Amino acid sequence: MKKAEIGNIIEFREGLLGLVEKVNENSVIVDLTIMENYRDLELEEKTVVNHKNYKIIQGTL
Question: In this record, what's one Pfam family (predicted)?
């Protein structure tokens, strides 16, 4: 499994997208505000996702 890098866009939890801001040993911290419907979903701006729970959608911006 390839780990995400800073700047990657990942998909997790059935369709949520996030921009990777920090890579930790077991997880990444992602910015969710890149999603068009971010405000409608009433989510926090950032979240932590374990490396096992995402797939890379787009390479580094």
Answer: DUF2187
